[in-house]
Automatic annotation (TrEMBL):
Keyword Transferase: yes
UniProt-listed InterPro entries: Asp/Orn_carbamoyltranf_P-bd, Asp/Orn_carbamoylTrfase, Asp/Orn_carbamoylTrfase_sf, Asp_carbamoyltransf_Asp/Orn-bd, Orn/put_carbamltrans
EC number: 2.1.3.3
Keyword Transferase: yes
Segments forming domain Aspartate/ornithine carbamoyltransferase carbamoyl-P binding: 4-141
Domain Aspartate/ornithine carbamoyltransferase Asp/Orn-binding: 147-299
Similarity-based family: Belongs to the aspartate/ornithine carbamoyltransferase superfamily.
Enzyme class: transferase
Keyword line: Transferase
Domain of life, source organism: Bacteria
SUPFAM superfamilies per UniProt: Aspartate/ornithine carbamoyltransferase
Protein name, entry field: Ornithine carbamoyltransferase
Length: 309
């Protein structure tokens, strides 16, 4: 039976913790896993361009002994060209898995329904599970035990925010989300995360005031202007400038570290001195994209079992 990874929302803490541990082992001992995907081919279907996602999957699959076929946003755009249902069924004839970076989560669901091979969400409008896995791997490397730590997200409540909330709630990490008015996370995702947090003991908070950041261990931000958003930059800046992550915000919150999924717009959502400063975890996050994704591939395609307890 094939398994997909469209979101971690339907996962349990045990397997997720096991997946994080596997990512750490793959990073520490890559030679032990260099044949995990031997003879396997993965299609990477990208409606949206990328640097980190494309390169980390391509090199990561190669390091596991597999082969990646990249379909870019021009050759592989689904809307108006070919139904996602047909593309999923066709790609299953040749590929062992599909990695898809798309605009709409419904596209992923259609691909997964039609495909007889695993579909992995490399980003959609609602979730970014591979990024969240890399981020919590990074936090685990920095803090060791992350249960009870506090991650504070500042900025637009988006797909990255959703996945940070989901994974944090499962792992018992406190997550605070601070956004400008009208940029909150999706209500249904917030409610689901609250139910997860009730089991794990995580504390989830949201609001618009920067005072909520006090006591955070880590500040996290993302671009203010998502790909495809045609809102004028002047309007975006008017809403978001008070939420810029800078040294003053780090000092007032007491946070030791700062994170950003990148691409970062220097001196907009985050200042250059913070990106390049001692608190920055940005490059560690970027590196860990490959290791987290390789753990996903190893479990879905390579026959490595996760601890389900």
């Amino acid at each position: 039976m094939k398994h997909d990874l469209l979101t971690f929302a339907d996962w349990q803490p045990g397997p997720l913790t096991s997946l994080l541990a596997l990512a750490g082992r793959i990073k520490a001992h890559p030679h032990d896993y260099q044949q995990v995907l031997a003879g396997k081919s993965v299609v990477a279907l990208f409606e949206k361009p990328s640097l980190r996602t494309r390169v980390s999957f391509d090199i990561g699959i190669n390091k596991l002994g597999g082969h990646m076929v990249y379909l870019d946003s021009q050759a592989g755009k689904l809307a108006g060209r070919e139904d996602a249902k047909d593309m999923g069924a066709n790609l299953s004839c040749w590929a062992d898995a599909i990695v898809a970076r798309v605009f709409d989560h419904n596209t992923l669901e259609q691909l997964a329904d039609a495909a007889s091979v695993s579909v992995i969400n490399a980003l959609c409008d609602r979730y970014h599970p591979c990024q969240a896995l890399a981020d919590y791997l990074t936090l685990t490397e920095v803090f060791g035990d992350i249960k009870g730590r506090t991650l504070a997200y500042v900025g637009d409540g988006n797909n990255v925010t959703h996945s940070l909330l989901i994974v944090g709630a499962l792992l018992g990490v406190n997550v605070t989300v601070v956004t400008p008015p009208s940029h909150e996370v999706e209500p249904d995702i917030w409610q689901h995360c609250q139910s997860l947090a009730a089991t794990s003991g995580a504390q989830l908070r949201s609001g618009h005031g920067l005072d909520l950041l006090e006591g955070a261990d880590v500040l996290y931000t993302d671009t203010w202007l998502s790909m495809g958003d045609d809102t004028p930059l002047a309007t975006i800046k008017e809403r978001f400038v008070p939420y810029q992550v800078n040294q003053a915000m780090l000092d007032s919150s007491g946070a030791r570290y700062v994170m950003h999924c990148q691409p970062a717009h220097r001196d907009l959502e985050i200042t250059s001195d913070v990106i390049d400063g001692p608190a920055s975890l940005l490059m560690q996050q970027a590196e860990n994209r490959m290791h987290g994704q390789n753990a996903i591939l190893a479990t879905l395609l390579g026959g490595i079992e996760l601890d389900r307890s």
